[in-house]
Amino acid sequence: MAAVALLLIGSVGAHADMPALPTQALCAAETAKAERAYGIPSQLLDAISLVESGKYDADSRAVLAWPWTVMAEGEGRYFPTKADAVAEVKKLKARGVKNIDVGCMQVNLMYHGTAFSSLEEAFEPSANVGYAARFLKGLYASTSHWPTAASYYHSQTPGLAANYREKLMKVWNAGGSRNAIASLNPFGGPSEQSNRPRLGPNPLPRPAVSQRVDQAREAWRANRADVQAEARRIADAYRQARMVEYQMRRARMVELRQAQR
């Protein structure tokens, strides 16, 4: 996710006598859990993860969020294991690269790295998704509008936020990754029994935009005063969300100190 964007922590962990979830199902499992825990609309957090770290999965023939994703220097990188992804981030940091997004939700380490105790935790789906859920919830508290909050998750720049929202709404309306995950056999491999609808290989389907949306966009661009007012609202929402993030982080530090006594 972009620098402005991002943000609890529960784990996917399977029952002792059950097989672990396949890697391609980890992000979707955590976004579903976080949506329930934080009262986020169904599949919205999941749709954000698809836009942020979506990768085509041959087994389910769909785009699914990939937990071992790294974005830096304008290039997305998908790794087979968490260890490989962590190693890549260490190499990037050694070269002086600071603006790095990681994990299911592409949390930006330059702005939010202190939210995690280690790089390994930053990639852990439960921690990565949980942090994103908290940040999104804070943005919603500032905007009272989920699509707007989701667009601010990406950027406080009006044009970038609007473009991101357009992409995100298409993915959200397409149903997220739930149907694709349902097609995976929990014991490994695709299920041949499932005939649920699946997303196509493009994570950002582009159906024709309605005339009403086109007209609204042109009117928004034409009215510079509205653009400036929108920019101020975004900046205010971002500052408030950062304050919420700071307060939650401070409360966590207090809890840790108390636990160590």
Describe what you observe in this structure.
With 261 residues, the protein is of the alpha+beta class. The chain has one domain. It has helices spanning 23-38, 44-53, 82-94, 109-112, 119-123, 125-143, 146-154, 158-173, 178-182, 211-222, 224-260; strands spanning 54-57, 62-65, 69-72, 75-78, 100-102, 107-108. Strands 4-3-5-6 form a four-stranded antiparallel beta sheet. It has a two-stranded antiparallel sheet with strand order 1-2. β5 (100-102) and β6 (107-108) form a beta hairpin. It starts with 22 loop residues before the first helix and ends with a helix.
Write a brief caption for the model:
The chain is an alpha+beta fold.
Question: Secondary-structure blueprint of this entry?
Answer:
Blueprint: H1 23-38, H2 44-53, E1 54-57, E2 62-65, E3 69-72, E4 75-78, H3 82-94, E5 100-102, E6 107-108, H4 109-112, H5 119-123, H6 125-143, H7 146-154, H8 158-173, H9 178-182, H10 211-222, H11 224-260
List keywords for this structure.
6 strands, alpha+beta, four-stranded antiparallel sheet, 261 residues
- Taken as a percent bin, the fraction of beta residues is 5-15%
SSE series = HHEEEEHEEHHHHHHHH
Largest sheet descriptor: 4 strands, antiparallel
> What's the count of strands?
6
State the distance separating the first and last CA atoms.
Answer: 37 Å
SS-derived structural category: alpha+beta
Q: Give me the number of helical elements.
A: 11
Mean pLDDT across every amino acid position: 76
Q: Rg from C-alpha positions?
A: 19 Å
Percent helix: 55-70%
What low-confidence regions span 5 or more consecutive residues with pLDDT below 50? 2-18, 181-210
Shape: globular
Number of domains: 1
Spatial ordering of strands, largest sheet? 4-3-5-6
